[in-house]
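Bench notes, bay 3.
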Amino acid sequence: MSSISTNQPLTRLNIFSGKGVQMRTFHITWLTFFFCFFAWFGMASLMPLAKEQLHLTKDQLGNIQIASVSATIIARLLIGRLVDKFGPRLVYTWLLVICSIPVLLIGTSQSYESFLFFRLAIGVIGASFVVTQFHTSVMFAPVVKGTANATAGGFGNAGAGLANITMPLIAAGFVGLGVCTREDSWRYAMIVPGILLLVFAFLYLKFTKDLPNGNYKELGISNQNKENTFMLAVRDYRTWVLTVAYAACFGVEITIDNFAPIYFTDTFGASLKIAGICAGIFGMINIFARPLGGIVADKVGKKYGFSGKNLLLALLLIVEGVGVIFFGMTNELGVAIFLMFLFGMSLKMANGATYSLVPFINPKAVGSVAGIVGAGGNIGAMLIAFLFKAKAVKMTKDVIDEAGVSQTKDLIDYTNAFFILGIIILITGVVVLAVKLAVKDVKKPQVVLA
């Protein structure tokens, strides 16, 4: 009998299959995560419009970026514990419903303060990643957990790329239909991801299960789970090694997702649509790069165990750091896109490699470990945002507007910030490489929660 027809974790991932509770849950989970990222970064490619209409300064833009990732830190820590206790199905459903509110309402902002508040609240949706990684971890056997986690994460992360590409088009569509002016189009465009979150809240509740053999409530798991899984995760130093590593890869990914549209607009003079497409390329790499990281990590893990996966992760971070340094140095749009693709590949593979390790840290605290490591990614993004805020250079440039009139425009240059960021990533990779020697006690991945 095929493993798909049983109530046990699957030993292989067939992404073209939708049979069985495991694969049905897998597909609904990554699709839900995809639209969570779509909603989270829906404003990124529309920021030039909001910046212009709300008269946002460089410092205010920096604060908005920090707000968009800071709320996720606390949310991921909390969600990890909640998922361990109540299961992913109910936790994800409520998360989607609650987060749809600020997504739908950000278009009502009339000031920097209200915009900042809604951007902060929207950041809570980033906790969806923890639920996604937990759910794929329990649906698949140890031999394929890395591949399953990375595939779900990669497919979901691509939502940010699609948002960067399509949100300017959605905004333009509202203008073309005569619904609103160009200046207000970003307000109406954000209604779309808000509605999508509500749709997937319904789908998640109706069509998924917490575990292959049923829901937590049916199995009585929530009543039996008395142990503090959060403290189990905190006490294991390997949790913190992965937290630092994830800050250097996923933290950078969030930064690029948020800053790339403005960076391409201000640095290379790209139009809103072109900048969105350029930034979207970075996000869409997730479709294959993050899964590839998980697949390679699983193969390395079979032969070299935890230490081999850790070495792979360190090397990917080093390559990423070098790529970011050269990305910040180029003045040619074509070269910048090429370099972004290269360091984006190593970065997203590092994301996948990190979460190929997460399920093996502690079998009783998968959700809490996933939450802490995931929060590390957002801590990294928040710190990087402070770096960009401090190192960004305000400049002016003569540009030709749509009417053909030359005018001086205020721009922001993030080149120095990208250079310093690359150096920090390089150092992180070297540190993770050195720590590899301290995890020789874990030779082979052990059987974990199923």
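Next record in the batch:
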Amino acid sequence: MPPSFSSILDECTDRLMRGAKEKGGKYKYAEGDFNDKSRLQPVKLQPSWEENNLPEDELNFRSLTMDEASLALNQPPDKFKLVYLTFLIHGIGVLMPWNMFITAMDYFIGYKLSEGYIGFTFPYIPNFMQYLTFCSQIPNVAFNWMNIFVQIGGSMTTRVVWSIIAGVVLFIVTVALAMIDTSGFAYGFFWITMITVVLMNMANGIYQNTIYGMAAKLPPQYTGAVVLGNNISGTFAAIVSLVSSMTTDNIRMAAIYYFITALFVLLICFDTYFALPLNRFYRHFELKDKTQQQKASKSGIKEKPPYWEIFKKSFPQLANVFMVFFVTLAVFPAVYADVKPVSKDFPIQKYFASVTCFITFNIMAMLGSLLPSLVIWPAPKWLWIPVVLRFAYIPFFLLCNYQVVGVERVMPVLIKNDWAYWVISSTMGFTSGYWSSLAMMYTPRQVEDRHAPMAGMFAAAALITGIFTGILITFLWPWVIGHVG
């Protein structure tokens, strides 16, 4: 009869004890001597974990398979930067609705609601941008903040998927409105458009906030990828708008191509999102986050996020995020777009606003967002200094040749060199991209790893709040240049 396991274990123990005594030493096991056989414990065979020489609390992966546990412990490379590119694409997608609508003003004001098309003067045209702004940003801000405290729609996957689907459906409605004759119901077209914008930005608020939360689980450069995508989104919208207006004189057809392009971008976002769980690099951080959440909840009850503690620790960087976007939106595009060339000899007279405003800002912001992958300066403690200095851009642009239709300018124009204006406005775009990327990347690192997604969501809410308040203050600038001299 073959020997039993217990007899084999006893024999091995005796041999080890004899060997230890021969060397004049004492063999320790756990907390007791090897002489005390009562302290011996069954051997746990976990070779894939033991080879990493990790402490016992790191080997608690009872809910994971061996492959998942190995993946959680060993970070694979991001091959071909596929995860980085995916978050960059989603960064483009989250700001696509806003960028597409603000750069399609000629379609709305110059075509669909023009007197030549509808046969009368539409009363809401002078304040169309204000209506569009409020219908876009109020639901966006509200749902960004709400998404932090209330899991609207359930898991992150559910929230992202349904938000993108809502955006796709609403862009289809927008394209359909562009295709049909709406001259007989101008008011109906206006209010359908505004309702579409409200619904689109409700979904977009959830989408944007959730994507930043997901990126915060990964290394800082992946949050930077989302910010870079945001800036590419503006560049993309500006270039598509310019190309469509140059290739056809038909505003209606240009708008159809324009909105269909946005539709395809959202469909790409939808497809790439489902590719993320297939990527081992992304799954590594997902599993790492999962194990951290499990260890933080020893009783098996899901831990309620300490919102106030996360907010307090993140606040310095949240303030930086807010201020960067407040200053940027306080002048772009409202003031930027209405700056006229001083010299008639300055080139690109016809496309002055398109080139010096939309294209320049978005390209420079995109380059600024790329820089943190090469240089990170200053440290989180000192970032507030250059961020606060950017407030000087507001009086600078007001002192340029900023002209508002219907407003007699009283404030003197002190910046009379168009090249100087263009160069300094370029630095505004560059610093917007660079400092915003740093602030967004720093924010999740101010808290424990398991709270990083929540800090990322706070950063997204601070971002959109800065955008909203910056847009609100732009309504003050026409009064300022007309009364302050």
